[in-house]
Here is the input.
Amino acid sequence: MSKIKICGLMREQDIDFVNESMPDFIGFVFAKSKRTVSFETASKLKSRLSAKIKTVGVFVNDDIENIVRLCNAGIIDLIQLHGGENEEYILKLKEKIFNPVIKAVKIGQPPYEPSLLKQIAAIGKEDFTLYDSGAGSGKTFDWDLIKNIKTPYFLAGGINIENISFAIKKLNPFCIDISGGVETDGKKDLKKIRDIIRAARIIT
Here is the structure.
């Protein structure tokens, strides 16, 4: 059964929503975004979060020391990289912390460059790959491009209540990553979170 990550939490009520619904992971966005949170806000939200839910920090080309500080403070459990971070960057990060690293691959929309198809199949120094149509795009990509991937990965981009069951049955990813698909007017919606987690967990 695929795990569930609810990303882009910003408010105390968002934490209350996930504490009730119990996804496997939640995400705090530290990169520039409409969902960005500060170190202080993330620390406050983390203190309110159930200990059974793991936190993921989302970064784009951030200073390694900023990530290390969040890890050492116990604010994030996993690191998600969405920029141009290369293997050297990931190795330097792993020299300083033991938290698992997720590296995002932006697939986007066709036409697809040959270099992208090689990148999809590549396994680097990260612990997990995340395949996305582009951070915050709200659109899916061509899932056939990753249907033969055997290593555990996160699937993101345009996942909602209408397509989550199909995504899990077709691809069986390690984790489904959802943000806009559980929002109403740009805010996390308890009913949508509840419904999408229920839909994911009835699939065997």
